[in-house]
Specification:
The protein is an alpha+beta fold. The chain has two domains: 1-53, no CATH class; 61-100. 36% of the residues lie in helices and 10% in strands. The protein has two helices and two strands, in the order βαβα. It has helices at residues 30-33, 67-98; strands at residues 7-11, 46-50. It has a two-stranded antiparallel ribbon. It is rod-shaped.
Length: 100
């Protein structure tokens, strides 16, 4: 069901009439005097809007670094170290040539 859409479910009211067809605790003719009185059907079907709630799943544990990422970082460190060693050797060789 898409989010934001409400589902309707049917609610069946209780059958029968109690207290002569009136709601319990109401006076005869009270519905005519007070426009705020709620009237509930005694027979038939009643539709109630049921809004969907978010269902959260259990959190999944993910590794901080994958094995592949660790291998790539190791290769990169080795390449940087090799480049630094080559630069140091070239600098040492250049320094040795410049001194007579």
């Amino acid at each position: 069901m898409p989010e934001g859409k409400a589902a309707f479910r049917e609610v069946l009211p209780k059958q029968g009439k109690g207290a002569g067809g009136r709601l319990p605790g109401s006076r005869p003719g009270a519905a005519r005097r007070s426009p705020a009185t709620l009237l509930f059907p005694r027979a038939g079907q009643l539709a109630v809007e049921d809004a969907p709630a978010m269902v959260l799943c259990k959190p999944k544990v993910l590794p901080l670094k994958s094995v592949t990422l660790e291998k790539l970082e190791k290769l990169q460190r080795a390449a940087v170290e090799a480049m630094e060693a080559a630069e140091a050797a070239a600098a040492a060789e250049g320094a040795a040539r410049s001194q007579p």
